[in-house]
């Protein structure tokens, strides 16, 4: 039986653990609190503690890093996590698969590919860029095997929170025939990564037998939120609307709500087309996006079910 270490039990880490277990792997799920999912071995571990992560990774095929500190803590929390997991991969011999995002690319001139330059100037993007480059340098020295799976903004059952742009704050008002207030221009194309497709890509990246030391892009849908609203109204018989939150309002909120300050800082992603190209990943890893209609129906029905329970 293959042993796997998954750090983080959120929507991505939890789903990944379940998928690995379903295919017959033994999964140790490491979190600060000892959270687990059925079939996994729960382990209390601080992802920034190199010795503890190394011990947890002994005998593991892969270390999947799916932990994600709060937006407000990225600058302080991510660097020691990167240091710890790189050390753990080096000392345990486990491969390292990082769950990443598109922040390091900055403001794109077109669709972002796996070869697009990491040109960000925004603080959170610089944190992710530095972490990837440190891990890549260790790979190039022959110390570890590393890859990073990059997703766009995720959506799916359970997705919520102030930094989730296609989550409860979007779907719930629409299903009540109200107005969803969003960051940026809702008429612009944007990439949306379905949570199950993220787990699929993480596993495919870990199983890849070709050259490592490179990123992969999660196959994702690209469409404007105005179109998503139209589809929801048509398919579920509601009359929801979408409207942008003014930039001045975001900045005002950011002055008193720290997480909104970080949302505002990365709001440029919604002021231009922000599209992820995954053609190379699809070709080399053999993965594809869940059909949009199916992903949307699964997501909307989960929020409808939650509304019925309340």
Topology:
Blueprint: E1 3-7, H1 11-22, E2 26-31, E3 41-44, H2 50-57, E4 62-65, H3 74-92, E5 95-100, H4 123-140, E6 146-150, E7 153-155, H5 168-175, E8 179-183, E9 191-194, H6 195-207, E10 215-217, E11 221-222, H7 225-236, E12 241-245, H8 247-256, H9 258-265, H10 279-285, H11 292-309
Q: How is the quaternary structure best described?
A: single chain
Query: Helical region count?
Result: 11
CATH architecture of the largest domain, by name, is: 3-Layer(aba) Sandwich
- Percent of residues in helical segments? 40-55%
The count of domains is 2
Top-tier CATH class of the largest domain: Alpha Beta
Q: Please, what is the average pLDDT?
A: 95
Distance between the termini: 42 Å
Q: Please indicate the percent range of residues in DSSP E strands (runs of 2 or more).
A: 15-25%
Main pleated sheet: 7 strands, parallel
CATH topology assignment of the largest domain: Rossmann fold
The Rg value, from CA coordinates, equals 19 Å
Q: Topology as H/E string?
A: EHEEHEHEHEEHEEHEEHEHHHH
**Form type:** globular
Number of strands: 12
Brief overview:
With 310 residues, the chain is of the alpha/beta class. It has helices at 11-22, 50-57, 74-92, 123-140, 168-175, 195-207, 225-236, 247-256, 258-265, 279-285, 292-309; strands at residues 3-7, 26-31, 41-44, 62-65, 95-100, 146-150, 153-155, 179-183, 191-194, 215-217, 221-222, 241-245. The chain folds into 2 domains: 3-152 and 193-217, NAD(P)-binding Rossmann-like Domain (Rossmann fold, 3-Layer(aba) Sandwich); 153-191 and 221-309, Alpha-Beta Complex (UDP-galactose 4-epimerase, domain 1).
């Amino acid at each position: 039986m293959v042993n796997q270490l998954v750090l983080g039990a959120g929507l991505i880490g939890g789903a990944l653990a379940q998928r690995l277990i379903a295919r017959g792997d033994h999964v140790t799920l490491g979190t600060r609190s000892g959270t687990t999912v059925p079939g996994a071995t729960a382990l209390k571990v601080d992802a920034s503690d190199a010795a503890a992560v190394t011990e947890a990774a002994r005998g593991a095929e892969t270390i999947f890093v799916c932990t994600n500190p709060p937006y407000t803590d990225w600058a302080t929390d991510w660097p020691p996590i990167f240091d710890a997991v790189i050390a753990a991969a080096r000392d345990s011999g486990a491969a390292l698969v990082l769950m990443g995002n598109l922040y390091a690319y900055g403001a794109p001139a077109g669709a972002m590919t796996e070869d697009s330059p990491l040109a960000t100037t925004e603080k959170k993007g610089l944190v992710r860029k530095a972490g990837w480059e440190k891990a890549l340098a260790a790979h190039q020295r022959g110390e570890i095997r590393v890859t990073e799976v990059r997703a766009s903004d995720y959506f799916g059952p359970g997705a919520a929170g102030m930094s989730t742009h296609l989550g409860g704050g979007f779907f719930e008002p629409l299903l009540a025939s109200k107005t969803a207030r969003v960051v940026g221009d809702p008429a612009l194309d944007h990439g949306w990564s379905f949570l199950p497709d993220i787990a699929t890509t993480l596993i495919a990246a870990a199983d890849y037998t070709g050259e490592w030391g490179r990123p992969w892009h999660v196959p994702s849908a690209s469409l404007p939120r105005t179109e998503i609203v139209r589809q929801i109204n048509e398919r579920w018989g509601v009359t929801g609307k979408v409207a942008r939150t003014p930039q001045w309002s975001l900045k005002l909120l950011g002055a008193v709500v720290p997480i909104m300050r970080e949302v505002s800082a990365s709001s440029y992603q919604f002021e231009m087309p922000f599209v992820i190209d995954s053609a190379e990943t699809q070709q080399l890893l053999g993965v594809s996006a869940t059909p949009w209609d199916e992903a949307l129906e699964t997501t909307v029905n989960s929020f409808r079910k939650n509304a019925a329970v309340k």
